[in-house]
UniProtKB/TrEMBL annotation:
Binding site for NAD(+): D30, K35, T86, T122, E155, K266, R333
Domain UDP-glucose/GDP-mannose dehydrogenase C-terminal: 319-420
Descriptive protein name: UDP-glucose 6-dehydrogenase
Keyword Cell membrane part of the UniProt annotation: no
Active site residues according to the UniProt entry: C263
Single GO molecular function: NAD binding
Length: 436
């Protein structure tokens, strides 16, 4: 089966490479010529573990190709996926659907065979209806069906998530759409991955409901962490204590500096806008968005406290370890590190930082921050060290070296990767999240 993937970013490229690995013939299309040139030269435009080898082997096998030419790329494809970005629209927080609709127009103008058009991008309820209208208006003589197939992969573990998903959700309105999608995912049927067929609008909403629920879980445990600090409890144990209950589940209960990334912040906002438009408020999600927003700067203030407070902090130096919103990605979109660095900068603090993969993307977002070659360069002369992202590289710091290099042995661990007693025994002043 031939598949076209329009948009070759974190989702499109991983999905395209995985479909090729399942044996389909895949063309990944992107309007960004530099991305396509890199891919043709075997260079990955993003960092995702295992992606380079997967792309290389499938290109070699002749199952994966790249182009900027949409008309050529979608030719003979039975399924055409739309995997372009749906960022927050400036000003009102609605999902910006201009990229999705532009692709729909282009597909309509160039369709040269019957095909199923699949929105893999995260899109608000009703977007599939609009894509269908655009295609109908194009006057194409070919049969088409518009299907919703949201993606649930996580950056950093994207290939495993795509190949072994908890479930595949397909929102289709006719047999043509359902039959083609069954063929697309046949290799996963064999894996016994559960497939849920629903209506298109339901499928669109499932994606937002899932992300909002996960964001709620994170925000809930973050508030519990704040309470733990006040009452003298330990949030790690609270987390374990509630997570062992199967009705709750242990995942997404790690207290930290607040959720970030390319999905949760924009998707929770977009869900609020949909709820508002349909006059059906989602007050829990409203609270989650507010609480999370204020948490990021509060984390900056936590670091200022470790420096002796706002006044004492001016002119001091902080080392930030980790900048991406989570480990194993280079994605900086809405990372808590941005607000933390801004809060510190606003207070006159000098910042040096190290991140294994994210510094190139981070630098334009935090121009005053000095990017370093390794954690120890960042730590040199620092009055406090803050762990912002739990990269493995920070899990076994050489504390003797840290103590020698830093001006003061002060560690603020915003990911709870160390044991307080162990670090304090080494002579450090140590603060973390929800562990008084
Ligand atoms: P991205 O920004 O990494 O990639 C989008 C790509 O689309 C870019 O390379 C861009 O050049 C390309 N593009 C834009 N307009 C185009 C056009 N007209 N023709 C061809 N290419 C075009 O975005 P992403 O992170 O891959 O996200 C894509 C969608 O998937 C979003 O809706 C997002 O919410 C959703 N999603 C993302 C993740 C994730 O972890 N990143 C997970 C699940 C769902």
């Amino acid at each position: 089966m031939k598949i076209a993937m329009v948009g070759s970013g974190y989702v499109g490229l991983v999905s395209g490479a995985c479909f090729a690995d399942f044996g389909h013939d895949v063309v990944c299309i992107d309007k960004d010529p530099s991305k396509i040139e890199k891919l043709k030269d075997g260079i990955m435009p993003i960092y995702e573990p295992g992606l380079d080898a997967l792309v290389e082997s499938n290109v070699k096998a002749g199952r994966l190709d790249f182009t900027t030419d949409l008309a050529q790329g979608i030719k003979d494809a039975s399924a055409i996926f739309i995997a372009v970005g749906t960022p927050s629209r400036r000003g009102d927080g609605h999902a910006d659907l201009s990229f999705v609709y532009a692709v729909a127009e282009e597909i309509g103008a160039n369709l040269s065979n019957d095909a199923v058009i699949v929105t893999k991008s995260t899109v608000p309820v009703g977007t599939g209806d609009e894509v269908e209208r655009i295609l109908a208006k194009s006057g194409t003589s070919h049969r088409f069906s518009v299907v919703s197939n949201p993606e649930f992969l996580r950056e950093g573990a994207a290939i495993g998530d795509f190949k072994r998903p908890d479930r595949i959700v397909i929102g289709a309105e006719d047999d043509f759409g359902r039959d083609v999608m069954r063929e697309v995912y046949r290799p996963l049927f064999l894996n016994e991955s559960p497939i849920l067929f629903t209506g298109r609008r339901t499928s669109e909403l499932i994606k937002y409901a899932a992300n909002a629920f996960l964001a709620t879980k994170i925000t809930f445990i973050n508030e519990m962490a704040d309470l733990c600090e006040k009452v003298g409890a330990d949030v790690q144990d609270v987390s374990r204590g509630i997570g062992m209950d199967n009705r709750i589940g242990a995942k997404f209960l790690h207290a930290g500096p607040g959720y970030g990334g390319s999905c949760f912040p924009k998707d929770t906002l977009a869900l609020l806008k949909t709820a508002e438009d349909y006059d059906s408020p989602t007050r829990i999600v409203e609270a989650v968005v507010k609480v999370n927003d204020s948490r990021k700067r509060a984390m900056g203030r936590k670091v200022l406290d470790a420096l002796g407070g706002m006044d004492a902090a001016r002119g001091k130096k902080v080392a930030l370890l980790g900048l991406t919103f989570k480990p194993n990605t280079d994605d900086m979109r809405d990372s808590p590190a941005i607000a933390i660095a801004q809060t510190l900068s606003d207070a006159g603090v000098e910042i040096a930082a190290y991140d294994p993969e994210g510094m190139e993307q981070a630098q334009p977002l935090m121009p005053k921050v000095k990017m370093c070659e390794n954690p120890y360069e960042a730590i040199e002369g620092a009055d406090a060290i803050a762990i912002v992202t739990e990269w493995d590289a920070f899990r076994a710091l050489d504390f003797a070296r840290v103590k020698e290099l830093a001006k003061a042995p002060v560690l603020v661990d915003l990911r709870n990767i160390y044991q307080p007693d162990d670090v304090r025994a080494l002579g450090f002043t140590y603060d973390s999240i929800g562990r008084s």
